[in-house]
Amino acid sequence: MNRNNIWIHVGIAVVLITLAGVLGQISRWKSSLRQASPVVKTDKGISGLSVGKGVAPRHDPEVLVRFKPGVSMDKIRSIASVNNDSLADEIESVRGLTVIDDLDNADAAAVARQYSAMSEFVEYAEINPTIKLSEPEQSPSTTQAFERPLAADAPNDPLFGDQWALNNTGQDGGKKRADLDALNAWANTKGSEEVVVAVLDTGVDYKHGDLMGNMWTLPAGLSQYFDDELGKFDDLHGFDGTNNEDTNLSVRGVGSGGILASDPMDDNGHGTHCAGIIGAEGDNGIGISGINQKVQIMPLKFLGRSGSGSTNDAIEAINYAIQRKKDGVNLRIISASWGSTARSQALEDVIKAAGDAGILFIAAAGNDGSNNDSRPHYPSNYNLPNVISVAALDRNDQLASFSNFGVKTVHIAAPGKEIVSTWLGDNFREASGTSMATPYVSGIAALIVASDPTISMADLRKKLLGSADELDALKGKVATGGRVCAANAMGNVVKKHSHQ
Amino acid sequence: MGFTKENAATRAKDDLAKRLKIDADEIVEKSISDKEFPDMSLGAPAAGEFAAQMIAYGWIIKLEAVGKTYEYRADKYQIRLVGFSGENHVVV
Fold first, then answer.
1. Is A313 tagged catalytic?
2. Catalytic residue among A85, A101, A201, A349
3. Confidence (pTM)
């Protein structure tokens, strides 16, 4: 730029911002007047249907905006201010990605359009629907698992005989060896407490008797997590992203010194189930064994009590994981047993940033029984070098009837039906879904890292996908045409173990 | 306390009455059936919502009012209204 003209350009830019802000504001006022339904699509009672300007007790950040390179934070604050908005948060791991809180409580789509129109400064803007959930209720009931005789070299966990995914002996009408061949894999390694796997989910019951020895806690040498906009978090047990939009701090809870509570305790059970699959303590005489008998599980809570969550909360939690990885935590894998058909560029960007930080992102393919090649499911469908999409198998090596598939977009399958694992209140129960298949793949990834600590993310992904035992049932259904195999991944290509 | 089939139906009826601005007595409970849902949004995600991909068990509650049928889905945690004005809603 000609230095003699720079102030002319700056002046034009200021005029354009102000003009866009004024025009957008007018549009949003009109939109507010037209608006019959709330900004947030989720209703909390009928009273939530009539949210108007100045009526809501607090404001949720409505829009995720990614600004172009070179737009400073001061400039972003200035743009937000002109629009009568505020910068609620900056997603540090993705350059220019911000969470914008509209102070008028206008229609989120209108706010997003307003920012999108500022193409000189904005790459994209998308709405951030938030999900409000009911208050905590009692724990779900548990199912009784049947204890079986153990294989000679099996761990002494009393429910191991029910863990057909680890060692399928044909129990309950299953097919022998339709499993992950855990016993042979464990001849190489049973996991390592040096490896950290993040469970991005409903939280984890970190006090569960079969999990507590394998839970990550904030290392003594690391400071509590600090976010420029949100403040300092007490992240001793992990991260809770479910309350970040609450500007009313009493909702989240503030401890001494103004530190925000960040308790990722599970209030649903799903995350605890997934965590047990990855790393319930093995050979401890309690319950089950994870595919890793030793590992560190980091809970990242973004799904609420009912098992659902918002894009922004997922982004915040992934951003936390990336920051901790950069802080030196040996976080190599994020296990993501969730999804929907909603696509978010901002979520894709933060998952890509996780990949750039060396974190593999393993995602459930979904449970609609549909083809993800033609009906995409996210985040599993993001075409990123760190994403693996996982389908579910039953105990007969057949694709589970509910499992999504897609020869172009779903990479591999794993056991995901009638899977026994940990549950709230020191319980154990069976559950089914690609939710259950996903942590098996995440867990095998952790086993690979335990045996080869310096393996790159790209090689880790390659090794995982290369471990697949090809199955007729998966030809044309998933890219590898097979079921992940822990023993193969360990290099024990020939199944040596005689199943008992 | 979580929802039961019965109190979920009552709550759904109350919700519909308020949305339609009619008396709850004008709503007919057509059916309540057990259902296996594909995920924890009960197969009815709200806009931009992500859900745990675990098979969930609950109920489909069909209500009839002013000549139309409305579908609610519920489990012990939540109640959802499906496709009302073209969108899914998390009621509770």
1. no
2. A201
3. 0.84
